[in-house]
Amino acid sequence: MRSEANVFGFRPLSVWLAALAFFLAGIAYAADTGPDPLPKEIRIGYQKFGTLILLKSKGDLERRLAPLGVSVAWAEFQFGPPMLEALNAGSIDFATTGETPPVFGQAARGSQLVYVGYESPSPEGEAIIVPKDSNISSVADLKGRRVAVAKGSNSHYLLVRALAKAGLGLKDIQVSYLAPADARAAFERGAVDAWSIWDFYLAAAQETLGARILVDGKGLVDNHEIYTSRRGFAERYPELVKIVLEEIAKIDDWTRDHPAEAAEFLSSQVGVASNVIELALKRRKYGLNGVSPQLVEAQQKIADTLHAIGLVPQPIRVADAAWMFN
């Protein structure tokens, strides 16, 4: 016989306690599987080239993130490989480099690197240069000569490609692995015969030293500027990565449409003459792209080339580091 309490829909206390426990467990599960709150800070690596230095200088990203309670910590690097070492070590969360450093970064043991975006190709933004009065007139003339380059950089790959096209290899020249500032000093005092380098260093050598371009990247390299992050960071905070990329795209558009203004602005920020910066900005191509099969294919070609000549010790599969937004 049913009790009066059950006729009117009441349930024993044990039933309600069980329901409450189930409800609380659901809340806990949602908390565990829902989106993580944004971090208090995003740490970004940049160089004295490309879009990120403008983004840093103008402060647009800070203004965008301030209402979300996220600050930005900027870390400057001379070139890409040390920056991606810092990325893999967890010292920064987001980085910008040329196309070659991510290959070395992915090849590192325990790599956490993922590609999150890239700029349109700018092959004229890097070159092998010689002093204005040099008797070197072709890449073939570099045989036996001293050539400065930053190890693992975009211009390292340019040097490899240019030599191969001339029927030479790295073994046929005397390679001086130097960071850009040291390479500039060596080039200026005649300690090296040629220098494989990118903008703004390239533009500065042309404008202040009268350096002559032996060959630039056209027909040899794409010279993409590539944006990378740590896998754990990108997967945990995809909305934050999207915001950074959105602000990069805005700065790209502004710089493309206002190169002289951008050059003047950057000149005051980094202490480089505006005519040097404007030269570099005008030969740069603009347009942010998401990670694409075309990028993966291009990066795989670099990886295979560097592995074939022993610069990358083991083969890598670039597609494994291609991060896509959900």
Automatic annotation (TrEMBL):
CDD domains according to UniProt: PBP2_SsuA
Family note: Belongs to the bacterial solute-binding protein SsuA/TauA family.
Name of the protein in its database record: Aliphatic sulfonate ABC transporter periplasmic binding protein
Organism: Methylocaldum szegediense
Keywords of the record: Signal, Transport
Main location (coarse class): periplasm
Domain Solute-binding protein family 3/N-terminal: 41-262
Signal peptide feature range: 1-30
Subcellular location: Periplasm
